[in-house]
Input
Amino acid sequence: MRWTLKKKPSLDKVKKLSEALSVSEEISSLLLQRGIETLEDSKTFFRPSLGDLHDPFLMQDMHVAVERIEAALLQNETILVFGDYDVDGTTAVSLVYSYLRSSYENVATYIPDRYQEGYGVSYQGIDFANDNDITLIIALDCGIKALDKVSYAKEKGIDFIICDHHRPGDKLPEAIAVLDPKREDCNYPYDEMCGCGVGFKLVQALASRQGQNIDDLSMYLDLVATAIAADIVPITCENRILTYFGLEVINTNPRPGIRAIIEQLQKPQLTITDVVFI
Output
């Protein structure tokens, strides 16, 4: 393996940060190499806060996505939460389904068969929606390049909301809303999210319209942390905050499956490395 080392910061910057934080110059140098240059940056890094998460409505199409979901709830439509078959996709489905289902009955899920349907949005999934009178599909961790399939759904009167984190192609699907921080026209401040992370931003936006605050959503962060770890996205900025509080949920109030793993391991606390490899 060949290592690519970041350029060393200037000694003047190292000394200033070291004095401001009362830490060694070695630690200050490491912080500077990670883009942490001020006392405020350091506070955010060492003391993550859910209050530092970005406004979800900064993401392109978020207002449209929320309005379409709210309309579906008012009109008693059935919503299909569709996700890819990997960890990022399945945790995203679990998160969005759990949130919607907590206050609304007409929600279904669909995860495509890896071998029969392959990756991403599938014609079989759309046919399932059509056969069950489903008029809105929320696609998680997939869909950004599913132009033909989204058009196929549109012909059947089925709307799509896409929540993806993969780089788009030259053209976007004809969906009601396309939530993807990697869109060229999206000004969201952080574009290294996983699919479950984008799904969480949708839930955060929906919750804010219901008068809920970010702390009310902490129960879902174990799913986000698991997806961040499994999808090997950078644990920086917003991902670091979500991972920090997700690990807190995993270690203090684990779901039954995670609790069983912890009991088998006989470890007092799981780290993010444990989440990836166990």
About this structure: The two ends are 24 Å apart (CA to CA). Residues 11-47 form one domain. The longest helix spans residues 237-252. The chain has two domains: 11-47, 56-260.
